[in-house]
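call fold(seq) -> tokens
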Amino acid sequence: RMEGEGSYTLPTGTEYRGTLRDGMFDGEGELLFPNGGRYRAVWHRGVPTQGKYTFADGLEYKDKKWHYCDGYDRRFYTEICSGLKPADISQLTNLDPPKKIPEGCYDCGDGFYNPETRVIVDYKLRFLRNADDDEHEWIIRACRKAWDETIQHKPKP
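ret:
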């Protein structure tokens, strides 16, 4: 079994770097995710006892008093760090300029979603997962799509 300091890459591409004991994460270590995020934690027998997640852009997640992109402050983290753009220039995602969405697809945050195949691929077009009905509905309703569509106000009958 793995023992001591080292690294281990999971089949998903996530890498663990830190202390291993009896084949499990144990002690200080971090998970490095393919999307650039990282989770640093103190582990005990494979379970994190305390830890901190940092997104790829440097934003640190807080489980209490989380105010990022809430109802009062809708700025992206890059806007918080670098300021807002002029009034007539929109910033559509935290990444500016945003990734180009393949034709017929949606940007669902961790990759692109094709509603025809119901497959989500990462931004390098590698398979991530198949969307279930709930995720499909959420993406169609809430996510940025590759095409422009004129929406007209429809008065209530």
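The chain has two helices and ten strands.
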